[in-house]
Amino acid sequence: MRKICKRLFSLNLPPRRSAFLWGPRKVGKSYWISHALSGHTLIDLLKTDVFAEYAVRPALLRERYSEHKKLIVIDEVQKVPALLDEVHWLIENKGLSFLLTGSSARKLRRGHANLLGGRAWRKIMVPLSFMEVEGLDLETAMHSGLLPMHFLSPSPREDLRAYIADYLKEEVLSEAQIQNIPAFSEFLQVAAITSSELLNYVNVAREAGISAKTVRTYFDILEDTYLGYRIPPWKKSRTRRMILTEKFYFFDVGVTNYLARRTPLVGSSDFGKSFEHFVLMELKAYQAYRNPELPIAFWRSSSGQEVDFIVGEKDLAIEVKGMKRVHDGDNRELSALREDGPVKHSVIVSLEREPRRMGKDIEVLPWKVFLEKLWAGGFGI
């Protein structure tokens, strides 16, 4: 039976401080609030009656809570951007603390809403991590993804279908005021199929039947709504000419595989791409919860040599191999990277059963061992 343990996210908000909490819908923000902040005031703007009264009269926030002493949580704050002016006033004049949650800062910026000018910390919640579930099965996670409701569902494909049709498309369509819905649907599929590959806007545009400029806008929106990430290339090579093109990954491996119509089985090329994506999502979770300033990049030379991820300032270089046996020669890219300057930790993450070394400097780690070491701080990042 699949089971979720305690979430890794923690607010750690000092008195008289406020924060934004961003993340896509169904990532678990509301559930976390209801359990971790049950003793605090909650204004849930997804409730139609609550939304209606604050949309008509944002000043109600000031009138009701000027003398409030506890944290005030406003869920889905982007639905009533004018509330942020009231929040600003209450922070400045009454010293109140707020937690403001949402799935898109883009809506607020587009409407020139008050983003509080540094008066609120920025927190992010991501899908489930390996460390938050018991007995994670990789193939199962590739199909269901790691959004909590989908991961626990007996019918994850149906839930993914509904999520994409009713939320993902709707969210991005509303952001871009898109009229050509079939073309956008095609774009989502092409973006999923090319996930983890070098990002070529012209090729995606051709496959989706839209302009390259529109494709760029769509990718910007996916990133701004926390539905995807562009991973930059490593640019600090001492001796090699490097590729400067980014890569793109959706925020959840299950969403990606559903959109791309993949069935990733161990040993297949689809599994290899999904396994790489899974490892990246763990790195993004670690970044969100432990070190928000942590750089994550990839290394690719103009001759085609590539290392999947570089974390920090070459503190950790990772090559992901979705295979049960890593062979001689699978360490060539990591060795080439080390020739380009020192690397503190070089790791091949694989499906092997036991840890071992290839040469003096490269570790081959089973994926669970790698993740346990990562979250335990074993790589010093």
Describe the structure.
With 381 residues, this protein is an alpha/beta fold. The protein has two domains: 3-124, Rossmann fold, CATH 3.40.50; 130-375, no CATH class. 41% of the residues lie in helices and 17% in strands. It is built from 15 helices and 15 strands. A six-stranded mixed β-sheet has the order 10-11-12-13-15-14, with helices on both faces. A five-stranded parallel β-sheet has the order 3-4-5-2-6, with helices on one face. Strand 11 (306-311) and strand 12 (316-320) form a beta hairpin. The chain is globular and about 70 Å long. The protein starts with a strand and ends in a 6-residue tail after the last helix.
Key attributes of the depicted protein:
381 residues; alpha/beta; Rossmann fold; six-stranded mixed beta sheet; five-stranded parallel beta sheet; 41% helix; 17% strand; globular
**Total strand count, please?**
15
Tell the overall outline.
globular
Question: Strands of the largest sheet, in order across it?
Answer: 10-11-12-13-15-14
Task: Kindly name the structural category.
Answer: alpha/beta
Beta-strand residue fraction: 15-25%
Outline the biggest β-sheet: 6 strands, mixed
Number of helices: 15
Gap between N and C termini: 33 Å
Low-confidence stretches: none
Total domain count: 2
Helix content: 40-55%
Secondary-structure element series: EEHEHHEHEHEEHHHHHHEEHHEEEHEEEH
Radius of gyration: 22 Å
Quick summary:
Strands 10-11-12-13-15-14 form a 6-stranded mixed β-sheet, sandwiched between helices.
How is the secondary structure organized here?
Blueprint: E1 3-4, E2 18-22, H1 29-36, E3 41-44, H2 48-56, H3 60-65, E4 72-75, H4 83-94, E5 98-102, H5 105-110, E6 120-124, E7 133-134, H6 138-144, H7 148-152, H8 156-176, H9 181-193, H10 201-208, H11 212-224, E8 228-231, E9 247-250, H12 253-260, H13 269-290, E10 296-300, E11 306-311, E12 316-320, H14 332-339, E13 345-350, E14 356-358, E15 362-366, H15 367-375
Parallel strand pairs: 2-5, 2-6, 3-4, 4-5, 12-13, 13-15
Antiparallel strand pairs: 1-7, 8-9, 10-11, 11-12, 14-15
Helix pairs in contact: 6-12, 8-12, 9-10, 9-12, 10-11
